[in-house]
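Why do we care about 3D structure at all? Because function follows from shape, and shape follows, mostly, from sequence. That is the central idea of this module. The next example makes it concrete: a single protein chain, its amino acid sequence, and then its structure expressed as tokens.
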Amino acid sequence: MKLAKELFVIPDLGNFILYAPFAHSVIEAGPGLSLLKKIQYGNYNGEQPELVERLKKAGILVNEEEENCQCECDGSGEFRPTGVTLFPTSDCNLRCTYCYGSAGESHNFMDFETARAAIDFVFANAQAEKERNPRQNEVHVGFHGGGEPFFHWRLIKQVVEYSKQKAEEAGLNLGMSSATNGMLGKQKLEFIVANLSSVNISFDGTEDIQNRQRPCANGMPSYGKVLRTVRYFEERKFRYGIRSTITSGNVERMKEMLDLFTSISSLKSFHFEPVFECGRCRTTGQQEPNPELFLKRIIEAKEYAKTKGVEIYYSGGRCGSPVQTFCGAMGRNFCVTPTGSITSCYEVSLPNDPRGDIFYYGKVEKGVKIDEEKRVRLLGRTVERMPHCKDCFAKFSCAGDCPAKVYAKTHNIFDPSENTRCTVNRGVLLYELRELLKEGKQNEPKTQFQA
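And the structure:
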């Protein structure tokens, strides 16, 4: 018998939280932890057997042969993606003050030959997978990028028509989705509802915030048109999501934003993410919120959301199954930029982006060419290979955080030591653990350990 290998003892208001992520277990403990210390140092003599059994059941204590601390980390082995995300253009009809891609300042447009080659690649992989396992018959084509995907309308229509035709011929189930800024006219809205599975709308909330942070390219307001898009999807019961960017200018107004969203939308979850100073921030002076202030306000907003029967999601404080990598940018995403580069990161799409040396791992040019050595190098970016994260209780929640943001700070994807989001990630996870204890969702009732 021993303590779980990944057991974190978190000081909390004079007590402790015992958190074993691989056992999905969280327990509140009193100030004395003598029983655990005895077991840890081999001095346990059989006392408190009932408590020991409860701790075993909760996964805090394990037998030598029982423990399994493996995270799922897909992507190793032969690379045969069955989904592609196309970045149709770097151009845009908005000039968001914080845009990571400085959209609209360059005018790159993907040609259909590039899109077709990438689509053919994932369809061939999906067909081969179906032959091995008839139950696996899914293929996905998505749109994203540093510009507004639907600004390259001709390509969108070509890709949708081509993908649907190939899916029908191959007997594959096709899913299609897109990110969008929501600046969509009636023709595009009708097309989306008729042909896509879902979209995710970037929308910053109240009229003044939206118009200030996400103005049109000509300086005119964008709020009204995005609001009409949301209402259109609501009327058609079309699947969509809302993602909002939090800056120093709206960090105090998350509750107001939530009030608006719940008044116009039937969604039960909204994604709030702090801005990272890059791209157009350098010319507009748009600033990220102070981490401590953001942490305080997003927890308040989460509490407020509960009163409305909804949730707020933040990417760095996930309390669920443990992970080794933050996202698919670690060698699993298959994305194609307007100029045909294969990138693993949704935020790295411009030809001159210095992060391209890390995240570009191939080219679509007369077929798909993968640099497998670079892709495997990305796969190696796991949290257990980051010394800075070694003793952090949030390590299997944020997994070293966003690699693109980490690289921008330290020029080393394995070194998140200057990551300003660490404070937020730990704070949000601690809040979520407390909520599990409060709601009685942990594996064991609250336990007081006596000294």
